[in-house]
Every structure is written in structure tokens, then in C-alpha cells.
Amino acid sequence: FVGPLHEALAVRKQGQLANQAVERLRRLYGGASMAYCTSPAANRIGCAEGTIRYFVCPASCSSSGECCSAECGYIAYVEHVHLGARLRLVLMDPICRIEDRETVMRAFLDECAMVHARPIFSCVS
After folding, report:
1. Which three-class secondary structure state does DSSP give residue 56?
2. CA triplet 12, 75, 39: central angle to 5 degrees?
3. How far apart are CA 90 and CA 109, in angstroms?
4. pLDDT per residue over 51-69, tens digit each?
5. What is the spatial distance between Cα 106 and Cα 89, in angstroms, rounded to a whole number?
6. Rg (Cα) of the chain, in Å, rounded?
């Protein structure tokens, strides 16, 4: 799809299953307070829930070679189109096992390239 500013669009329905995956991964690997703040189940004041997006990295096997669930981690971000450029501001480190961080980051960067989005990392450990 092409957006009103001729940017590439990838249309995905963010459903209950994605929120369940994010919550499961947050409970397993989210150790920082920002992990809870970006949770779809967090009690936030305002309407931040509508602007936070989640890239859930699918995985059939983890980086260690052991079979795992359908998702190995997620990245929370806010997306804006500014002057025709699609920007994705990543809110925090990926929520995943430390061994899977590179896999999750590479998959996120690949998806950003696919939809012509520019990722901005405000903090990465």
C-alpha cells in the first residue's frame, strides 16, 4: 500500500494475540520499569495506548538453537510521519532474552527497511 505522502505502508491488524504475546514476553524478560510502562495492560493517564506500537519478533528457534515459542521478543515504538519521512522512535531496549537481542534488533531493522521507516533509538544498552 502507498500512503498519502507516497510512503510505503505495511498494514497489520494489532489484535488481542499480539497484546498477549507482548504481555507474556514482558513478564518473562522485562526487568526495567519502562517494560511495564510500554505494556498494553499498563494503567496510563492519557491516550498513549493508541500511539505505542509493538514489533513482535517471530521465531521458530532461539539463537541458542533450542526450540521456543512463536515469539522471541518485542520492541515498543512510536511511529510518526514528518515531512514525508516515516520515523519510528524506539522507546526502550528490546524485551527478550539477552541472547536474542541481536535477532530481535535485526528483524526490526529489516522491517523498518521494508516499509521505508527510519528507526530512532533514544536508548540502547
Report:
1. strand
2. 90
3. 11
4. 888 899 987 545 555 545 5
5. 16
6. 15
